[in-house]
């Protein structure tokens, strides 16, 4: 184990290996005398100034390192960039593209950045034939430090372009989860805040003999600082919808573990990791409405672009791979922009839900229940009460239970 050294810069940089010796030195006549010596004081101040100067230089070097990170800007840039009122797709890299966007212009951002694995590891990590991976596919830096620096480069630009009530989703594997989180938490003001850590549990993880089978990805849902992102809780279900097993469908769908199957297209040429349409649709619908702008800065298979377009959202995005860009760009643009997409399910929330019950209210409800229960079952009596008084089922159950009914 490495020992700590204790340095006294005032007394000719004297070094002590034990703290007790260092503490004794601080009380010594030599040290106290040096403290009173003006030349020593000046020397100490100069040393502190030098140290501060060194720290500033190190900080500047770190900034230069981030700025000099190879983003692959405009590699094989396609000339037929698509840009209109509802669609803007470019062949730029993520960092350069985000820099080109106006402030507070995006409502929902979905990013599935490269996982930092080389082509020689496709078979090992994905059980995938690299011959089916689209030509020109580029991975992110593979070592942790470079990946973290690369992640900071584009993530730190997001707070500027995301609306105050907007949402950022980042899909990532376990191997670089820490780097992504560090980049999020170190973003400059306005800060990004992690609101949910969603687990996407998929089918058929890659079998290994010496490790547990990886069968999930992480999805970090983030907002801007103190602001709460817009969240459409009735995107798919209202308050009374039920699952096949009779559970509350809205509650089940809003849990933070998502069981969504991967989509397989055997033999097709594609990017390494294709997100299922269902997964992307869920993120888009809960965090935006038709007419809002959705973005993806690592388009890959263009899933986000296709789903956003079909659901009536404006879309902006980019992908550095020219082959992928050429394969999908025109197809997305050819999809007619719909104007009559359903936004949210109609609320079935009782009219008086959440309103405080007075003592008089309680007396009336109990009396009415007793009248109904003489001729009806408890279940049928409850249904009548819910309709007549505009109260939720469980609030009435609790009220009657407290009254001994």
What does this structure look like?
The protein has about 400 residues and is an alpha/beta fold. The chain has 15 helices and eleven strands. The protein folds into three domains: about 60 residues, no CATH class; about 250 residues, 3-Layer(aba) Sandwich (Rossmann fold); about 45 residues. Helix 10 crosses helix 11. About 40% of the residues lie in helices and about 15% in strands.
Helices and strands in order:
Elements: E1 6-8, E2 14-16, H1 19-26, H2 29-36, H3 38-67, E3 82-83, E4 87-90, H4 94-99, E5 106-111, H5 122-126, H6 144-155, H7 158-161, E6 162-172, H8 177-185, E7 192-206, E8 214-224, H9 249-253, E9 257-259, H10 277-287, E10 293-296, H11 303-310, E11 314-318, H12 322-334, H13 359-373, H14 378-389, H15 393-402
Parallel strand pairs: 4-11, 5-6, 5-10, 7-9, 10-11
Antiparallel strand pairs: 1-2, 3-4, 6-8, 7-8
Helix pairs in contact: 6-8, 10-11, 13-14
CATH 2nd-level architecture of the largest domain? 3-Layer(aba) Sandwich
Fraction in helix? 25-40%
Low-confidence runs of at least 5 consecutive residues:
70-76, 117-137
Q: Briefly, what CATH class of the largest domain?
A: Alpha Beta
Give the beta-strand count.
11
Top keywords for this entry?
Rossmann fold; alpha/beta; 9-stranded mixed beta sheet; two-stranded antiparallel ribbon; 15 helices
Summarize the structure.
This protein has 405 residues and is of the alpha/beta class. It has three domains: 6-67, no CATH class; 82-334, Rossmann fold (3-Layer(aba) Sandwich), CATH 3.40.50.150; 359-402.
């Amino acid at each position: 184990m490495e020992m700590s050294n204790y340095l006294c810069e005032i007394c000719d940089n004297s070094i002590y290996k034990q703290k007790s010796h260092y503490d004794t030195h601080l009380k010594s006549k030599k040290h106290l005398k040096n403290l009173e010596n003006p030349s020593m004081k000046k020397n100490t101040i100069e040393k502190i100034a030098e140290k501060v100067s060194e720290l500033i230089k190190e900080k500047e070097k770190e900034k230069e390192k981030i700025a000099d990170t190879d983003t692959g800007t405009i590699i094989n840039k396609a000339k037929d960039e698509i840009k209109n009122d509802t669609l803007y797709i470019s062949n730029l890299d993520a960092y350069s593209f985000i820099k080109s966007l106006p402030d507070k212009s995006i409502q929902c951002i979905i990013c599935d950045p490269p996982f930092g694995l080389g082509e020689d590891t496709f078979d090992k990590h994905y059980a995938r034939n690299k011959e089916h991976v689209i030509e020109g596919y580029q991975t992110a830096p593979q070592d942790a430090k470079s990946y973290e620096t690369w992640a900071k480069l584009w993530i730190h630009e997001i707070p500027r372009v995301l609306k105050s009530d907007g949402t950022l989703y980042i899909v990532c594997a376990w191997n670089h989860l820490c780097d992504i989180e560090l980049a999020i938490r170190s973003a400059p003001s306005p800060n990004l805040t992690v609101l949910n850590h969603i687990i996407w549990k998929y089918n058929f993880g890659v079998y290994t003999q010496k490790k547990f089978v990886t069968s999930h990805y992480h999805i970090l849902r983030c907002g801007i600082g103190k602001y709460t992102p817009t969240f459409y809780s009735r995107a798919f279900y209202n308050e009374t919808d039920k699952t096949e097993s009779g559970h509350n469908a809205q509650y089940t769908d809003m849990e933070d573990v998502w069981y969504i199957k991967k989509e397989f297209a055997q033999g097709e040429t594609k990017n390494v990791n294709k997100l299922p349409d269902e997964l992307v649709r869920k993120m888009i619908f809960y965090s935006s409405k038709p007419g809002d702008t959705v973005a993806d800065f690592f388009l890959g298979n263009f899933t986000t672009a296709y789903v956003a377009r079909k659901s009536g959202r404006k879309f902006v995005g980019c992908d550095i791979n020219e082959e992928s860009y050429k394969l999908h760009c025109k197809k997305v643009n050819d999809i007619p922009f719909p104007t009559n997409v359903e936004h949210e399910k109609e609320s079935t929330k009782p009219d008086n839900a959440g309103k405080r019950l007075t003592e008089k209210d309680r007396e009336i409800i109990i009396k009415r229940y007793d009248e109904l229960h003489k001729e009806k079952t408890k279940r049928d009596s409850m249904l009548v009460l819910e309709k007549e008084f505009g109260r939720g089922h469980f609030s009435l159950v609790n009220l009657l239970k407290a009254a001994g009914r």
